[in-house]
Specification:
The structure holds 2 protein chains of 2 kinds.
Chain A lengths: L1 H19 L3 E7 L4 H14 L3 E6 L3 H10 L4 E4 L5 H11 L3 E16 L8 E2 L1 H9 L8 H4 L13 E5 L4 H13 L1 H6 L12 E3 L1 H11 L3 E6 H6 L6 E3 L5 E2 L3 H10 L24 E9 L5 H15 L16 H12 L3
Parallel strand pairs in A: 1-2, 1-3, 5-9, 6-7, 6-8
Antiparallel strand pairs in A: 3-11, 4-8, 4-11, 9-10
Chain B lengths: L1 H5 L12 H7 L1 H29 L1 H7 L2 H4 L3 E2 L4 E2 L2 H32 L2 H15 L3 H28 L14 H25 L3 H9 L4 H12 L1 H17 L2 H7 L16 H8 L6 H41 L1
Antiparallel strand pairs in B: 1-2
Helix pairs in contact in B: 3-15, 4-15, 6-9, 6-12, 7-9, 8-9, 8-13, 9-12, 9-13, 10-11, 12-15, 14-15
The chains are: A alpha/beta, B mainly alpha.
Chain lengths: ~350, ~325
C-alpha cells in the first residue's frame, strides 16, 4: 500500500514538475468526427515541440461553437460552419472575428440491407431525397430501379434509418439533400439534427449500422470512415456531372478541388454536390474555429505554427486514418489566412 | 450558524447544560453535521429546479403552455414541443409497470412466503445482481435479443391474434414503445422483487399464525393477510420501479426508435424525454434549441414529481380503506 502511495506521490510531483516547467497549454473543444486525427496531430506536434501541449475534448460541434464563443477554450472545432448569427455573437462578445480553417474532409455514404440483393446500388439525388422524404416507399420504385438496371429489387416497403443524436454526418447528409431537393430544403432543412419526415433513429454510426443490419429492406447513412473501417457495403451516388461515384478518399478530395473556385475568403463553404467528374457529392470539410486575435502572444504563435504544420506535415497522417486530404489549392489559401491571425 | 445554535435549545434534555459541555460530548456536533447532510438533499433539489427553470427561460417565454401540447420538434425551424416525448415517457413506463408489477410481486410472494429459505436467499443474490447491472447492458440485451424476437415472432404473433386492437397495428420494426416497455420491465422487476420480498419477510409472524389458526390455508394467509399488511411497502417498490422507468435513458434510447411520434400502436417507434435529451444535447446549436432541451428536463422533473405525489395520495387513500376492509 505504502509503495503505491509513494508511486502516486512521485507521479503527481512529476506531473506538477512538467506543468511547472511552463508547458504552454492550448485548449480546444468540439466535433467528434475528426477527433482521431486531431488527437494524432496534437500528439505528433507535442513530440516535435515539447513545450506546447494542445488538449482537445471531443464534446460535439455544438458544444465546440458554444465554448469558443464563451471563451472557455482557445479554439473550437465543428463539422458544420458557424452561421451568420453565431459569427455575430462571437464578434459582439469579443470585438474581433472568428476564423474557419478546413482541416480534413469527410463524407457520408448510403448503406442498406435488402435481402436477396448483393449488387452495389446506384442512387440518384431524386431517389435519395424521395426515400428520406417518405415519398419513395418501395424498393422497386422507378426512381431507384431506373438507375439499377439488371438488379431485381423487391416490392418491399423501405425502412429509413437516420441518426438520432446530433451529428456532423447528419449535417453533411441533410446539406446534400437540401441542395438537390427544393422540397427537402423547405420542409426539413439542414442541420446536425432535423425533424425527419420518416424513419427510425439510431444513436451513432454504430447504432445506425446495427439497425440496418437487423432490419430487412432498410436504408440509412453512415460516415465514410466508419463504413470503410467496418467493411460495410455502401452504394454509389450520382454527382453533378451525371456520374455514379462510389465514395473513396480521392473522390472526396476531388469534391474539394472542384469547389475551390467558389471558395469564399472565410472558408465557410459547403462542398456537397460539388462540380467535377470524379467528385463524390456527399462530402464536407470539417473546420477548426480559431479567434482572429490572441491576447497571449505565446499562444498565438504556437497556434499559428501548429496550423501551418497541420497544413504541411500534418496532412500526411490523414489517409492512414481514412480522412481525405485537403487539396493543394485550399492549403495555399489557408496558409495566407493563418498569417492574418493577430 | 445562528439558526443552528437556536435549534438545540428547543430540546428539553440538553437545555440545562451549557453549550460548551454539549459540544464536548459531541451531541451538538453530530446533530449539526447530520442536519447539514439532510439539508443538502433539499438544497440540491432546489438548486436543480432553479437551474432548470433559469436555463429554460427562452422557450418558456416563447412557447408558454404550448410547449406541452405541440407535437413538432424541429431544431431547424425552431419549433419545439414536448408532447410526443411526454407521451413516449408515460407509455413506456406504463407498459413496463403493466408487465413488471404482477411478475415482480408474484415472484416476491413466492420467495418470501412459499420458497425454502435457502432457495429464497440464493435467488435474492441473483436478483440483487440483476438490479446492479448497468442500463447500457440491458440496452444491448434489448438490441440483440428483444428487438429481433419482437420483429420476427412477438409482433407478428400479436398482430395475428390481437390485431383488431389499435395497440397492435402497423409495421413490425422490432423497435418502439412496446420493446422499450419490455426492456424497462426486465430492468425494474429486480427492484420490485427485492423490495417487496424484504417487506413481506418483515410482516410479523403472529399475523400469519393468527390467520392459519383461524383455519385459512397457507395461500389464504399469504394473500389475504400478509400481502395486505405489506401493501404500503409493496407500493413503495412499485414507485421505485416507476421512477426508474420514467428516467431511464440509455436502454430506452437503444430500443425505442428515436422518432417523436404519438401513436396508439405500441409497435410504433417513439421517443422519450430522457432519450431525446441524451441524443441531442451535445450537438444542440442555438440557444432556443438548447434551452428547449433543458425545459424538457424540467418537464421530466415535474412529471416525476406529480406521479410521486399521486402515488403518495394513493397510499394514504388505500391504507385507510384497506384497514376498514380488513376488519370487515
Amino acid at each position: 500500500m505504502k509503495k503505491i502511495a509513494g508511486l502516486l506521490v512521485a507521479g503527481l510531483v512529476l506531473a506538477a514538475g512538467v506543468w511547472a516547467q511552463g508547458a504552454l497549454l492550448i485548449n480546444g473543444a468540439g466535433a467528434t468526427f475528426p477527433y482521431p486525427i486531431y488527437s494524432k496531430w496534437f500528439d505528433e506536434y507535442h513530440k516535435l515541440h515539447e513545450a506546447i501541449q494542445i488538449n482537445y475534448q471531443s464534446v460535439g460541434s455544438g458544444a465546440g461553437i458554444k465554448q469558443v464563443t464563451e471563451g472557455t477554450v482557445d479554439f473550437g472545432a465543428s463539422d458544420g460552419p458557424m452561421n451568420d448569427e453565431q459569427l455575430k455573437a462571437f464578434q459582439d462578445k469579443h470585438g474581433f472575428a472568428i476564423l474557419h480553417f478546413p482541416t480534413v474532409l469527410g463524407a457520408a455514404v448510403p448503406t442498406y440491407n435488402i435481402p436477396g440483393v448483393t449488387a452495389a446500388l446506384n442512387f440518384t439525388p431524386e431517389a435519395l431525397a424521395g426515400i428520406f422524404l417518405g415519398r419513395v416507399t418501395k424498393w422497386n420504385d422507378a426512381a431507384i430501379a431506373g438507375a439499377n438496371k439488371g438488379v431485381s429489387l423487391p416490392a418491399n416497403d423501405i425502412v429509413v434509418v437516420h441518426r438520432s443524436d446530433g451529428s456532423g454526418t447528419t449535417y453533411i447528409w441533410t446539406d446534400y439533400l437540401a441542395k438537390v431537393s427544393e422540397d427537402w430544403k423547405n420542409k426539413v432543412g439542414k442541420g446536425t439534427s432535423v425533424n425527419w419526415p420518416v424513419g427510425l433513429g439510431g444513436k451513432g454510426n454504430e447504432g445506425v449500422t446495427g439497425l440496418i443490419k437487423q432490419t430487412p429492406n432498410s436504408i440509412g447513412y453512415v460516415e465514410l470512415i466508419y463504413a470503410a473501417q467496418n467493411n460495410i457495403a455502401y452504394g454509389s451516388v450520382k454527382n453533378s456531372s451525371g456520374n455514379f461515384v462510389k465514395a473513396d478518399l480521392a473522390g472526396v478530395s476531388a469534391a474539394a478541388s472542384g469547389s475551390v473556385k467558389d471558395m469564399p475568403e472565410d472558408f465557410r463553404v459547403s462542398i456537397t454536390n460539388a462540380p467535377g467528374k470524379t467528385a463524390y457529392p456527399i462530402s464536407s470539410f470539417t473546420w477548426l474555429l480559431v479567434p482572429s486575435k490572441f491576447s497571449d502572444a505565446g499562444k498565438r504563435d504556437a497556434t499559428k505554427d501548429f496550423l501551418k504544420w497541420m497544413m504541411a506535415d500534418g496532412q500526411s497522417y490523414a489517409e492512414q486514418l481514412s480522412y481525405a486530404k485537403l487539396p493543394k489549392e485550399v492549403v495555399a489559401k489557408e496558409i495566407k489566412a493563418i498569417d492574418g491571425i493577430q | 450558524m445562528a439558526t443552528t445554535t437556536t435549534v438545540p435549545g428547543a430540546s428539553p434534555i440538553s437545555g440545562s447544560r451549557s453549550l460548551l459541555s454539549r459540544l464536548r460530548e459531541g451531541d451538538e456536533i453530530a446533530r449539526l453535521i447530520t442536519f447539514l447532510f439532510a439539508a443538502s438533499v433539499v438544497v440540491v433539489t432546489l438548486l436543480l429546479v432553479f437551474e432548470l427553470w433559469q436555463g429554460s427561460a427562452l422557450p418558456r417565454h416563447k412557447f408558454g403552455f404550448n410547449f406541452f401540447v405541440t407535437r413538432v420538434w424541429d431544431p431547424i425551424f425552431d419549433q419545439f414541443g414536448a408532447l410526443p416525448f411526454i407521451y413516449g415517457t408515460l407509455v413506456t413506463a406504463g407498459v413496463a409497470l403493466f408487465l413488471a408489477v404482477p411478475l415482480g410481486i408474484g415472484a416476491a410472494i413466492f420467495l418470501a412466503e412459499l420458497a425454502p429459505a435457502r432457495v429464497s436467499d440464493t435467488l435474492e443474490f441473483f436478483i440483487d445482481l440483476l438490479a446492479a447491472v448497468p442500463s447500457v447492458i440491458y440496452g444491448l440485451l434489448g438490441v440483440f435479443i428483444v428487438v429481433p424476437l419482437m420483429r420476427e415472432y412477438i409482433q407478428p404473433g400479436l398482430k395475428n391474434s390481437l390485431g383488431f386492437l389499435p395497440f397492435f397495428t402497423g409495421p413490425a420494426y422490432g423497435l418502439g414503445f412496446l420493446t422499450a416497455g419490455i426492456v424497462l420491465a426486465i430492468m425494474v422487476i429486480p427492484y420490485i422483487i427485492s423490495v417487496s420480498r424484504e417487506v413481506l419477510l418483515s410482516v410479523p409472524r403472529d399475523q400469519r399464525e393468527a390467520a392459519l389458526s383461524l383455519g385459512s390455508t397457507r395461500w389464504e394467509a399469504t394473500w389475504k393477510v400478509v400481502v395486505p399488511f405489506a401493501r404500503t411497502g409493496i407500493m413503495g417498490s412499485i414507485f421505485l420501479a416507476l421512477a426508474r422507468s420514467l428516467g431511464e435513458t440509455m436502454a430506452v434510447t437503444m430500443v425505442i426508435g428515436n422518432t417523436p411520434t404519438i401513436s396508439a400502436s405500441l409497435f410504433s417507434p417513439g421517443d422519450s424525454i430522457a432519450s431525446v435529451i441524451a441524443n441531442q444535447f451535445t450537438e444542440a446549436t442555438g440557444d432556443l434549441y438548447l434551452q428547449s432541451l433543458i425545459e424538457l428536463g424540467l418537464v421530466l422533473f415535474l412529471l416525476t414529481f406529480i406521479l410521486n405525489g399521486l402515488a403518495r395520495l394513493l397510499i394514504v387513500a388505500t391504507s385507510q380503506r384497506g384497514s376498514g376492509m380488513g376488519q370487515a
